[in-house]
Amino acid sequence: MARKAKKLPSAKHAFVELSRRGPHDVLHGDLALVGLPGIVCTPRTGTNLPAVVFGHGLLQPPRRYLALMRHLASWGIVVVSPATHRGPLASHRLYAEDMRTALDIATGVRLGDGRISVDPDKLGAAGHAMGGGCAVLAAAGDPRIKAVATLAAAETLPSALDAAAKVKAPALHLAAGEDLLTPPVANAEPISRAWGGPVQMRTIKKATHLGFTEGVHWTQLLLHGKPEYHTQRIAKGLLTAFFLRALANDRRGDLLLNENVKGATIDQVNTHGKLAA
Fold first, then answer.
1. CB-side exposure of 73: number of CA atoms within 13 Å?
2. Angle, CA of 4, 10 and 16, to the nearest 5°
3. Prior bond of 158 cis (ω within 30°)
4. pTM of this prediction?
């Protein structure tokens, strides 16, 4: 009897794997215990781990991204998210500084019960809306940041568009196709075109501005959109593949980074270079 042909890996299989919870148990706690208001999520144990700072959107508390942060931690990535500058007149410059401070804490303090440490050469930045723009500002001012990912990035003051040209680290920008607050044409697209290093942009076709968030929050009465499972799942899979590749040289998501995902195809016009050669 002929043997059944072995099924080759595909981008779809990589997406299914990386959008699911990873192999690590996850701890999360209060970043204020080590000097800055916010949330920290870590694997239960691990040394010399990669770390990502995540910036919240306008008026959003970090807990609205807890599932994404816990997801990345389940794949072995420490995530810190400062809860500062949550008012309507938030300072983008100061919040970017707080994001860099959060990385200082992650690298300088033994987390958990002392069994978790971060490698200072494996740092990334990410964020939603305002937090995405501030992640760009943070990366432009901190050469330690080796990878940047944004979700519905917003222009900032000082300009994230101007800062993008100074960043040589690889970037993944996910835009929301039905975003009325930070439409891709005025935000993620020009940031991607100006990026100084390899960059990939994808637009999630049916996503709204708040599709990346979770839970119920009063800002849903003012801002456009609502939490969307499909949008969150795409973000989990792609950010996991991207940060594992860029910070840990884990290649299991390479096919996913190089090919289209249903509902989130690669925007070839605003993409240059390769995230996974």
1. 28
2. 105
3. yes
4. 0.94
* 178-219 pLDDT, tens digit each: 999 999 999 999 999 999 999 999 999 999 999 999 999 999
User: Beta strands 26-30 and 38-43: pairing type?
Assistant: antiparallel
Strand partners, 29: 40
The position carrying tokens 């942060």 is: 69
Structure tokens at 63: 């807990």
| Tokens representing residue 139 in the block | 């990366």
The answer to whether 64 and 214 have CB atoms below 8 angstroms apart is yes
For 41, the token pair is 């999520």
Instruction: Choose among 135, 117, 134: nearest CA to 126.
Output: 135
Partners of 148 in beta bridges: 125, 171
Q: Give the span between the Cα atoms of 252 and 223, in whole angstroms.
A: 36
Taking Cα atoms as reference points, which of 209, 21, 51, 54 lies closest to residue 126? Answer: 54
Q: Which residues contact 186 (CB under 8 A, 6 or more apart)?
A: 155
Tell me how far apart the alpha carbons of residues 136 and 159 are, in angstroms, rounded to a whole number. Answer: 9
**Residue 148: phi, psi to the nearest 5?**
-135, 135
Question: Which residues are CB-neighbours of 18 under 8 A, at least 6 positions away?
Answer: 75, 236, 237, 240, 241, 244, 252, 253, 256
Q: What is the largest CA-CA distance in the chain?
A: 71
Whole-angstrom Cα distance, residue 172 to residue 164? 12
pLDDT digits (tens, 9 = 90+) for 142-189: 999 999 999 999 999 999 999 999 999 999 999 999 999 999 999 999
User: What are 8-39's pLDDT values in tens digits?
Assistant: 478 889 999 999 999 999 998 998 877 799 99
